[in-house]
Amino acid sequence: IAKEVTQNLKCMPLEEAIRLYGGKEIAEVRAMSEREEAIVEAGPVSGPEHPLVDLLSTFRSSLIAVERERILLAKGFADEEKFRNSVWRVEKKMVTISEDCACGAVVQLRATYDHAELLKERLPAAKLRLEGLLRSVQESYCHHQHAALLAHCQIEDLISETIRSNKPEIREALALVLQALRLSDNAPSALATALQRWSAILSSALLDARDLRQLLYLMHQLFRQTRSVQWAARVIRVTAGDRTSAARAIALLDLLLARTRLEAAVECTEDADEGWEEMDAHGGGAVSEGALRERDLLALLKVFPLRELVARLVLFTHADIGTAREYEW
Questions:
Q1: Which residues are bridge partners to 96 per DSSP?
Q2: By C-alpha distance, which of 240, 162, 150 is closest to 204?
Q3: Pairwise CA distance, residues 310 & 316, whole Å
Q4: What is the DSSP string of 5-35?
Q5: Which residues neighbour 261 within 8 Å (Cβ) at sequence distance 6 or greater?
Q6: Residue 314's pLDDT band (cuts 50, 70, 90)
Q7: N or C: which end of the chain has fewer CB within 10 A?
Q8: Closest CA to 312 of 256, 258, 253
Q9: Region 59-86 average pLDDT
């Protein structure tokens, strides 16, 4: 009886297979990533003379002042509602009316009503309070609101000019905007919304499929954000059209999954999409500098063509995976 021979299939660790598939390209991306990380860690190089520095500071301080004045005005109007009653003396009065009915009976009607008397001697004080509120609106609230709108328009114009310039200028502007975004926690939400919009515009202008350095620069900037970076998923594009681009995509995945850390969160609060936050065991924010939220990570992973990437890794001997036959899988 012939002994049945079972042939063992040769296998290798996934890491070794990936190294054989695109080790050279992956090493190049890692070296490039280290250089871009050092640039990001060094921070903006332009200094306070960059026009965005003053404009972003003015925009932030003006929005904070607008919010402060809004709260003061709301309190002032609420107090005015209370003081308004002090210029009137309101008394309850009663009136009784008697009428003879045609049937011979006497009909009596008794009614209670409020009698209000305007206290004219208190009008000057009430007028002064209203004039004070009007001055607060005109001189404080409207002034700061105008300053915020003016700074917003000037930043829009500057960014519009920047995205038509060279990559170094776009990088510098993006670094300044993202730096301001990291410091926007104690400011009104309108500031973070505007900064995220400008970050997306600058990132879209910066990214170039022919220059992977720009994407690596953006990724290292995102790793340092303390707010949600889901906006970046709308501008990042990763392709795996050939072996080289697929190997680079694997290196980017390694950077995203292995080089960053996810803070352990015991609770997630999702009262609003933009207000989503992870909480640590002590009730504080679990997301710190250099850590991504889980939702952010999932959003960034969706920009990777994972199905095509796996197909190219499995069928690395085929230039066109569409021509592969069933048994070759």
A1: 110
A2: 162
A3: 10
A4: -PPPPP---HHHHHHHHHHHHHHHHHHHHHH
A5: 290, 291, 292
A6: low
A7: N
A8: 253
A9: 85
